[in-house]
Design a protein that fits this description.
Helix content is about 35%, strand content about 25%. The strands form 8 sheets. Strands 1, 2, 3, 4 and 5 form a 5-stranded antiparallel sheet that branches. The chain has a 5-stranded antiparallel sheet with strand order 15-14-24-23-22. A 3-stranded antiparallel sheet has the order 6-11-12. A hairpin with a 2-residue loop joins strand 4 and strand 5. Helix 6 (about 190-195) packs across helix 10 (about 270-280), helix 10 (about 270-280) packs antiparallel against helix 20 (about 560-575) and helix 11 packs across helix 15. The longest helix is centred in the first third of the chain and has 31 residues, at about 5-35.
């Protein structure tokens, strides 16, 4: 049986239990004094400001400013100042250290924060940011836009560009060479349609270029290959990042690095064909694209070869015919009424110039008979027509370069609505009008696909393996359909609307197109208004052993595609063969 403790023993046990609790309470009290009631609002504000900067959260940075600073500079001006400094410095990352203890700074406290800034062009900047604190917040001034600046100083850059690398044709011929400020083109203006030009970047391109180390006002590629591969050609800029007194009296170097030379871009361009294509276009508004029929590679580009999609007119009938043949909606020997137009979905569509045409499908294709092709749109249906166009490359990014380069340059696509609409809309689309838009490059690709037994290939403009597109080939149609289309396109050149596309060197297979864009100014109220026209021709040759495919567009042409676009293609194919 346990004994009952005495009064003395009870007191001893109570004291033993109470002492640890008292010790814990004492420690908590001391810690509370050190960290609670004795905290530093200056240091905490500096920490928040620096961490927000690290995350590029300008809104949170601005929230740490005192009332007087916010009255002097609004948030938009504040954010703009930091973004401008980032561009000048080519900054790509900020790392904020821990804030130091607040020190007396005359009118208030100053809290030092160690900052590390990684820049693309100037290396790494390690500097202390002294944040002044008064009246309950950061007392902001313009020198706080970048670590290492002192009061009254501004950020500046003395950029040293690397030696810009050349752009070469596939045989090594120089298309563009020399420093960015004085770029030279040994082939003259003929090469510029491919190489593009170097100059001052547009406002919208500045953030992207800054990420790659190019501060504002440095000459960069602004079009063509010069723009698409600016980073590769220009190399890595270097130079000095500077702190400059407002009056220019003093300059300090914050960081410095040496530029790294660029690397050449070798293209798929044939310099002879390039000169012929530019010469044949003769400065007219429009474009020319020439492709290797069996490889898909670009051999020449002139004018707006892939930058201004237009209604393709009757050249799109190649796409419509592909869909109709593959779907079994038509055969080459089918007979059609000879008429001057057709009613589709309640609207009468005329043949070109009100002409009468029809007969066999071969004859109708050769004469580009709207009365035959417009009804094929509804007969084939939306899904088949759109699907066939997309198999040919409509509604898809261009395959000139690697996908990351295409995404950055964002060239215009050839397009067709995925849901075309009513029966009349399908009829109009089937003859290449309405909302269908294409480029000479796209229509050259259509011919290349037929020439290559129905297989569409990427249209690479560069030979460097890492820069080429990674797109796969596409089986657009059967070999049988490709052979039938070849026969039809031969008929266009031998006895149809495209006889001006014939050449003595080989049999050409082609298709003409003339897209009507509306009445010319002043003709709107005329009973028979003169139309603004785009003239087209797409072709490949030799028809049986194809080597080249071509697409030609003349914008606001003086005549139909068979009259003015076909001769341009003939000149190019003749020279190339």
């Amino acid at each position: 049986m346990p004994s009952i403790p005495t009064e003395a023993e009870r007191r001893r046990r109570l004291l033993t239990r109470t002492l640890p609790l008292a010790a814990i309470a004492l420690v908590a009290f001391i810690v509370g004094i050190a960290t609670g009631s004795g905290g530093s609002p200056e240091k905490e504000a500096a920490e928040r400001f620096a961490k927000a900067w690290e995350a590029k959260n300008f809104k949170a940075m601005y929230a740490q400013l005192n009332q007087a600073s916010r009255a002097r500079v609004d948030r938009q001006e504040f954010e703009s100042a930091y973004r401008d400094a980032e561009q000048v410095a080519t900054a790509r990352g900020f790392d904020a250290g821990s804030a130091g203890d607040a020190e007396d700074g005359g009118e208030g406290k100053v809290v030092p924060v160690g900052m590390t800034v990684a820049t693309v062009a100037f290396g790494t900047v390690e500097a202390e940011l002294d944040l002044p604190y008064t009246d309950g917040g950061i007392a902001w001034n313009e020198s706080l836009v970048f670590p290492g600046l002192r009061s009254g100083e501004e950020l500046a850059a003395d950029v040293e560009l690397a030696e810009r690398a050349p752009i070469l044709a596939r045989d090594g011929t120089v298309l563009a060479a020399g420093p960015a400020e004085e770029r030279e083109h040994p082939l003259g203006s003929a090469a510029i349609d491919v190489t593009g030009e170097v100059g001052e970047a547009s406002e919208e391109d500045l953030p992207r270029l800054a990420r790659h180390g190019f501060p504002p006002e440095t000459p960069v590629g602004i079009s063509g290959i010069e723009r698409a591969f600016n980073d590769r050609l220009a190399g890595k800029p270097g130079g000095s990042l500077l702190a400059v007194a407002a009056d220019g009296s003093a300059v300090r170097t914050l960081a410095k690095s040496k530029p790294q030379a660029g690397a050449a871009v070798k293209t798929t361009i044939d310099p002879g064909l390039q000169e012929v294509a530019v010469s044949a276009l003769a400065g007219r508004s429009g474009g020319v694209a020439v492709l290797d029929a069996r490889k898909g590679d670009v051999r020449a580009l002139a004018g707006q070869a892939f930058s201004a999609p237009q209604p393709p007119g009757s050249t799109f009938k190649v796409v419509t015919t592909t869909a109709a043949l593959e779907a079994g909606k038509v055969s080459l020997d089918d007979e059609f009424e000879i008429t001057n137009g057709v009613n589709v979905g309640g609207r009468f569509l005329n043949n070109a110039n009100g002409e009468y045409c029809g007969g066999t499908f071969r004859e109708s294709f050769a004469e580009s008979c709207n009365a035959v092709f417009a009804p094929l749109g509804p007969a084939v249906g939306n899904d088949k027509l759109v699907g066939t166009a997309e198999a040919f490359g409509f509604n898809s990014p261009l395959t000139l370069y690697a996908p990351r380069i295409v995404a950055e340059v964002d060239p215009e696509e050839s397009t067709i609505p995925t849901e075309i609409g009513e029966e009349i809309d399908l009829g109009v689309s089937a003859i290449g009008q309405g909302e269908v838009l294409a480029t000479p490059l796209e229509m050259a690709s259509v011919s290349q696909t037929i020439a290559n037994d129905g297989v569409r290939l990427p249209n690479s403009l560069v030979l460097n393996p890492k820069l080429r597109p990674d797109a796969e080939s596409t089986q657009v149609m059967s070999e049988k359909t490709a052979a039938e289309l070849t026969e039809l396109m031969i008929g266009v050149v031998t006895e149809g609307t495209g006889t001006a596309g014939a050449i003595p060197e080989a049999q050409v297979a082609g298709k003409t197109g003339t897209a009507e864009l509306g009445p010319k100014p002043g003709e709107e109220n005329s009973d028979n208004p003169v139309q603004i026209k785009d003239a087209w021709f797409t072709a490949f040759a030799p028809a049986q052993k194809p080597r080249l495919a071509v697409g030609v567009l003349l914008i606001e042409a003086e005549a139909a595609g068979g009259e003015v676009a076909a001769p341009i293609a003939a000149e190019i194919l003749s020279a190339g063969l």
